[in-house]
Design a protein that fits this description.
The chain is of the alpha+beta class and about 200 residues long. It has five helices and six strands. It has two domains: about 120 residues, Electron Transport, Fmn-binding Protein, Chain A (Pnp Oxidase, Chain A), CATH 2.30.110; about 55 residues, no CATH class. It has a six-stranded antiparallel barrel with strand order 1-2-3-6-5-4. Helix 2 packs parallel to helix 5 and helix 3 packs parallel to helix 5. The longest helix has 21 residues. The radius of gyration is 17 Å and the shape is globular.
């Protein structure tokens, strides 16, 4: 990887893929990250990604415009075929290697109940660019990412919230099918299959 700086506006949350390792095996999940005081900031609830970061103090952040990779990562469907060497995703366009500077834990109380949230402050040590793509905004991608963000909280939802979420998926389907491509369609189908939503 080549050393560089990341050119993103501060205090803006971007959906990214965070790759950590456990016994040398890659574990990738989508999360929101932001730049704050030239540091990369992640805020995580207790999960495997957080445990891996605490244990290793290093991780990757990967960017891609492919919604299917985000979907497969969310649903634990990524396989070794999705990666190249060094735990880099084949579909990644920019890969950041980060080193943890500071970890802060605090209690959080939201509509899903009381949780511990952990904020991780990290520094970019290397950056690599591959698979150069035009950074175009697509409505179907935006819808898929929004559904995946909600999906991460699905197990904490009550029955009314789950019903509302499923309705949101159904309502989003027309836009996704109309404005997306085969990867958007595969993403939507995977989400629907995971939640047993019939056509």
């Amino acid at each position: 990887m080549n050393k560089s700086t990341i050119n993103l506006p501060e205090n803006t949350i971007f959906e990214v893929l965070v790759t950590t390792t456990n016994n040398q095996k890659p574990h990738t999940k989508p999360f929101g990250m932001k730049i704050q005081d030239k540091q990369v900031v992640l805020t995580l609830f207790p999960n495997k990604t957080l445990n891996n970061i605490k244990n290793n103090k290093e991780f990757l952040i990967q960017f891609t415009l492919n919604p299917l990779i985000y979907t497969k990562a969310s649903l634990n469907k990524l396989t070794s075929k999705d990666y190249q060497n060094n735990n880099i995703l084949k579909e990644a366009t920019v890969i950041l290697r980060l080193k943890v500077n500071k970890i802060i834990e605090q209690k959080n109380n939201d509509k899903y109940g009381e949780n511990i949230i952990t904020t991780i402050f990290s520094t970019v040590t290397d950056i690599k660019q591959e698979n150069i793509q035009v950074p175009a905004i697509n409505r179907a991608t935006t819808k898929i990412i929004e559904l995946l963000v909600d999906y991460t909280r699905y197990n904490y939802m009550n029955s009314n919230q789950k019903t509302s979420y499923i309705n949101k998926i159904i309502e989003s389907e027309n836009i996704i099918r109309k404005t997306g491509n085969k990867n958007h369609n595969k993403s939507l189908n995977l989400i629907k299959k995971e939640l047993n939503i019939e056509d």
